[in-house]
Amino acid sequence: MSSEARHTLSHTRKQNAAEVTGVERWASLGGGLWGIAGGLRKGGLMGWGQAILSGMLVYRAIKGECRLKGALSASPYEKHVAEAHHWQAARVVSHSVTVNKPRDELYRFWRAPDKLAEVLTPAMHIEQVDDRTTRWILDSDPAKQLLVRLVDDREGEFLEWVSDSEALPPFSGWVRFQDAPGRGGTEVQCYVTYEPAKGHLGYLADKGSGGTSHWLHRNLRRFKQKMETGEITASRPFT
């Protein structure tokens, strides 16, 4: 397992509220107090609304943290990845799903490019170049091709891939298979890491829209449905 994957496994990735310090904290306190006073003088619905919003600024300053800022800020692990790869920014998303199948069967599915392509969206086909390299080709635009290299392979437990150096955006990802505690089946955990186009602006756009997160969640649910029922039904909701 790569050092980056080991770092991820030990990292909780819980996004705490970002700290508000220095000038920003004093500005929040001063602006909040001024806004409260103005709102109370104004009165009425608009005045009370202003006072409440300004009170949130005061609370932000007193607590020294801002949950909105934290939600839109890079996590410590994302900062670590960006520094390690010399990227402007790094987007990391993860999801997990429990599948009522044994680990070895699920591992073999992920290890077979033609099978994996069945559950991925947008539609694509995956060609085997050699034992550890595959070429991913979008059905909608065959000119868009990507070489992906398998860098870690632990049978029945773990798989990790990285894109070739020419990939835009560059990315890496891994999937881990563990016996689900108490319920039977297998817990499948998947991480995807990439450098957003346009750096920090691209990061904010994706985090705000949840695009990559929704994509990963949907594909894992498609995988679960395929393994448990043998087919993917478009009319069935993916929750």
CATH superfamily of the largest domain: START domain
Main CATH class of the largest domain: Alpha Beta
Structural class: alpha+beta
Q: What kind of oligomer do you see? A: single chain
Question: For the residues shown, what is the average pLDDT?
Answer: 78
Low-pLDDT runs: 9-18, 235-239
* Strand order across the largest sheet: 3-9-8-7-6-5-4
CATH topology of the largest domain: Alpha-D-Glucose-1,6-Bisphosphate, Chain A, domain 4
- SSE run: HEHHEHHEHHEEEEEEHH
Distance between the termini: 31 Å
What is the CATH architecture annotation of the largest domain?
A: 2-Layer Sandwich
Strand content: 25-35%
Query: Mind telling me the C-alpha Rg?
Result: 23 Å
Count of discrete structural domains: 2
Task: Find the count of extended strands (DSSP E, 2+ residues).
Answer: 9
Q: If helices are DSSP runs of H or I spanning 4 or more residues, what is the number of helices?
A: 9
Helix content: 40-55%
Q: Specify the biggest β-sheet.
A: 7 strands, antiparallel
Q: How would you sum up the global shape?
A: elongated
